[in-house]
Amino acid sequence: MRCQLPIVLLALVVAQVFLCGCLSDEPQGLHTRFMHKLSIKTNTPIENVTFLVPVPTRDDLPAIGSEQISDAFYVDHLPEHYDCTIVPVDGQYYLQLTAPQMDPARPIHVDYYNYTSFGDKFRPEVVPQLIDTRYPFGNESLFSPKQNLTLIAGAPGIVETRGINPGCRYSYTIPVYAYYENGTRIEIYSDIWGENGWVEQFDAGMLNRYYDHYHLVITGDPQGWMPAGGVVTTGQGMYEEWQLNASPTSGAGE
C-alpha cells in the first residue's frame, strides 16, 4: 500500500494539470477560413453567351481576404471554351464570361477555400489579424455595388458573449448582366464567407462568421442588366471578450 500511495498522488497531479488545461479560458487553435462560390446553370443549351457577374472586392480591388484575385483565379475553374476577364464597370469589378455555347451538362462552378492557422497556442498579438465578422462593410471582401441596402433583422453593435449570436441581416440588389440565345431558364448564384474558429474547454468548437450572397433566376429571354437579390449576414456565431476588445485589421494573414 505504501508503494501505491505515490502513484495515486502522481495520477491525481497529472489529472489536475490536464483538467486545468482543458478548462483554460484561453482559446486554442485559432484559425480563419474564406470560402467563395460561383455557380451558373442552364436548363437547355444556349448560344452566344455573355455574363457579367460581380466578384468579391476589398479596398476597391478584386480580392478574397488578403489575396487579390485576377483572371487566372477563375480560368482554372472554367470549361476550356470560355473566355473570362475581370473588368471594371462604373467603378466596380465584374467577371466577364463569354462562350459560343453553354451546355447543361457542363455548368460553371467555381469553389474556393482558404484556411489560415495561427498555431495551437493562444497569442494575443494575432487577434487583430482575425476576420472582422462583425463589421465587414469597408473591412472585408464583399460583393459590390450594393443597391437598396436595408437592415432586415438584428441590431448592429449588440453582441453577447454567451450563446450563439444570430447576427444582423441586410437585403440588397446588385446588377448582373446576361445575354444568350435559345435559353429557357438560367440560374446565377455566388457567395463569399469569412469565418474565425477556435476550440475551448474539452475541445468545444467555436466560430463566428459573416457571409454575403446573391441569386438570380432568368426565365425566357435575358434583359441585359438585371437586379439580383442579395443578403449579407454579419456577426453570426460565438464571441469572446478577447475578440470583442481587439481592433481587427481586416483579413487573415496580414
In a few lines, what is going on in this structure?
This protein has 254 residues and is mainly beta.
Describe what this molecule looks like in 3D.
By secondary structure, the protein is mainly beta. It has one domain. The chain has three helices and 14 strands. The strands form two sheets. Strands 1, 2, 6, 7, 8, 10, 11, 12, 13 and 14 form a ten-stranded antiparallel beta sheet that branches. The protein has a four-stranded antiparallel beta sheet with strand order 5-4-3-9, with no helix packed on it. The model is unreliable at 5-23 and 247-254 (pLDDT under 50). This is Lipoprotein.
The percent range for strand residues is: over 45%
Contiguous helical run count: 3
> pLDDT under 50 segments (min length 5)?
5-23, 247-254
Return the domain count.
1
Structural class: mainly beta
Mean pLDDT: 87
Main beta sheet strand tally, sense and closure = 10 strands, antiparallel
* Secondary structure: number of strands: 14
**What is the percent of helical residues?**
10-25%
Helix-strand pattern: HEEEEEHEEEEEEEEEH
Please give the alpha-carbon distance between the first and last residues.
Answer: 59 Å
Q: What gyration radius follows from the Cα positions, in whole Å?
A: 23 Å
Identify the overall geometry. elongated
Protein name: Lipoprotein
Organism: Methanoculleus marisnigri (strain ATCC 35101 / DSM 1498 / JR1)
Task: Chart the SSEs and their pairings.
Elements: H1 4-22, E1 28-42, E2 46-54, E3 56-58, E4 61-64, E5 67-68, H2 71-75, E6 83-89, E7 92-102, E8 108-117, E9 142-143, E10 147-153, E11 168-181, E12 185-200, E13 204-219, E14 224-237, H3 241-244
Antiparallel strand pairs: 1-8, 1-12, 2-7, 2-11, 3-4, 3-9, 4-5, 6-7, 10-11, 11-14, 12-13, 13-14
